[in-house]
Write a structure and sequence with these properties.
This protein has 97 residues and is α+β, with helices and mostly antiparallel strands. The protein has two helices and three strands; from the N terminus they run E-E-E-H-H. A three-stranded antiparallel sheet has the order 1-2-3, covered by helices on one side. The mean pLDDT is 86. The protein binds zinc ion. The site of zinc ion (ZN) has 7 residues, from loops.
């Protein structure tokens, strides 16, 4: 049961730095999924090489990006986390009945 999808842009304004949070209030497995858009600024053969290095456990540490939440989005994110927390609390109460 999806309860909402929210997008969060980075303070830098880059469209590559947009996160999508999906709140799923399924009583069996309530969770929040996070999706990140992968950038395609490298040519295809470099992306394949990065993928091969990743598959064989080689160093890919230089391919991390950064995302910084906007302060005005904090309440929106807290609201989503509170919904998840409340579903977990209700499920625990049901288990104890
Ligand atoms: Zn950014």
């Amino acid at each position: 049961m999806l309860d909402g999808v929210e997008y969060y842009s980075c303070v830098c304004g880059s469209p590559d730095h947009t996160l999508r949070f999906i709140l799923d209030l399924d009583p069996e497995w309530p969770t929040i999924y996070t999706e990140i858009m992968m950038s395609h600024y490298q040519p295809w053969y470099k992306r394949v090489w990065i993928g091969i290095k990743y598959m064989f456990g080689m160093d890919t540490s230089d391919h991390f990006g950064c995302w910084e939440i906007k302060h005005e989005d904090a309440d929106k994110m807290i609201n989503m986390l509170t919904k998840l927390k409340n579903v977990n609390k209700i499920n625990k109460e049901k288990l104890n009945e």
